[in-house]
């Protein structure tokens, strides 16, 4: 998550539409002044006072022209991760005299996109609601327990939106899983979550299970420098579904002078425990990967080193004494799938 208000208001939820998780703007009726693709980019958008294009003022967002006929403007978005949407942030950062006074959201679930996106049947999940200029506009949405794959952002009648953030829980259709297929049990796109950590001063814990390799050092989990030694930092991952872990990848991509000296991984089968109870000392953690040396800026693949083939629902990674890792992959077989 890229903004403080969204992070606080929708803590624990996944950003489902972000460009970095595969979100994409597919179609709009008008992006004359500023391209629709900006809607899902990282950050809240920037303002450069003297930057202009041949069409007018350059703006870091989606901006349509001034409407001189009845109607409203819209943009269709494919979520990067299908999910159960619980809240949105329609951010009008830097759009002051040109923000839309109102917006609404429609959603649908598509197994396959039609050739003509304008034929989609939509369901309203956010009624026409007022927007403030230059602000994060946070809304809870109608949630009937349905997953969605696509959104249509409607603005009334026209104007500019810097960013659209969509928060919710990941939907994974396990009916499409092929029995015996090894998958990344920790992956965000499969429904894994990094639920707790002791420190993420420089980089969010959630980055560890994001798709692809990290774009830069900021796209990983990084803790502050530990001044009292020995010691370690830790993070706990709730697996997408309980399973047996057969292969582990710990990636220190981009971490060169600040990678951990070593790491270890433990697991526990506690599928119904509340996130807030995961630090309870009564929980038993079983070794999966013993403390093992790491190197800078490198993918570390472990299989022979794995010491347990038990079924786990949660995994705890420890890094010694501190530092950053960009990605954690836990490949294995789901139990009872």
Q: Could you walk me through the main structural features you see in this protein, from its secondary elements to its overall organization?
A:
It is a single chain. This protein is mainly beta and 337 residues long. The protein folds into two domains: 4-170, Sandwich (Jelly Rolls), CATH 2.60.120; 176-334, Sandwich (Jelly Rolls). Helix content is 2%, strand content 41%. The chain is built from one helix and 22 strands. It has one helix at residues 4-9; strands spanning 14-15, 24-28, 52-53, 56-57, 62-63, 73-91, 102-108, 123-130, 136-140, 148-156, 160-161, 163-170, 183-184, 193-197, 221-222, 233-251, 262-268, 286-293, 299-302, 311-320, 324-325, 327-334. Strands 1, 2, 6, 7, 8, 9, 10 and 12 form an eight-stranded antiparallel sheet that branches. Strands 13, 14, 16, 17, 18, 19, 20 and 22 form an eight-stranded antiparallel sheet that branches. The longest helix is centred in the first third of the chain and has 6 residues, at 4-9. The protein is globular. The mean pLDDT is 95.
């Amino acid at each position: 998550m890229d903004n403080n208000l969204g992070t606080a208001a929708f803590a624990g939820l996944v950003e489902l539409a972000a460009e970095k998780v595969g979100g994409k703007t597919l179609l709009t009726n008008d992006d004359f002044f500023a391209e629709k693709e900006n809607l899902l980019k990282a950050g809240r958008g920037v303002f450069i006072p003297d930057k202009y294009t041949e069409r007018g003022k350059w703006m870091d967002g989606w901006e349509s022209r001034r409407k001189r006929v009845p109607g409203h403007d819209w943009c269709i978005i494919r979520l990067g991760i299908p999910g159960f949407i619980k809240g949105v942030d329609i951010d009008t950062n830097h759009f002051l005299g040109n923000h839309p006074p109102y917006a609404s959201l429609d959603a649908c679930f598509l197994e396959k996109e039609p050739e003509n996106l304008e034929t989609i049947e939509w369901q309203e999940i956010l009624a026409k609601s007022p927007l403030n200029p230059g602000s994060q506009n946070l809304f809870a949405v109608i949630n009937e327990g349905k997953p969605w794959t696509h959104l249509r952002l409607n603005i009334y009648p026209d104007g500019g939106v810097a960013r659209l953030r969509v928060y919710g829980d990941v939907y994974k259709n396990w009916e499409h899983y092929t029995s015996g297929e090894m998958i990344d049990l920790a992956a965000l796109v499969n429904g894994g979550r990094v639920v707790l950590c002791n420190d993420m001063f420089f980089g969010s814990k959630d980055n560890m299970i994001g798709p692809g390799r990290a774009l830069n050092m900021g796209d990983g989990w990084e803790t502050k420098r530990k001044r009292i030694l020995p010691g370690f930092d830790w993070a706990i991952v709730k697996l997408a579904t309980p399973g047996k872990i057969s292969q582990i990848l710990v990636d220190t991509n981009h971490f060169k002078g600040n990678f951990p000296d070593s790491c270890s991984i433990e697991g526990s089968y506690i599928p119904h425990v509340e996130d807030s109870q995961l630090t309870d000392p009564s929980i038993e953690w079983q070794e999966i990967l013993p403390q093992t040396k790491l190197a800078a800026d490198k993918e570390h693949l472990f299989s022979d080193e794995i010491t347990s083939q038990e079924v786990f629902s949660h995994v705890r990674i420890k890094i010694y004494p501190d530092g950053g890792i960009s990605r954690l992959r836990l490949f294995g077989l789901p139990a009872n799938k």
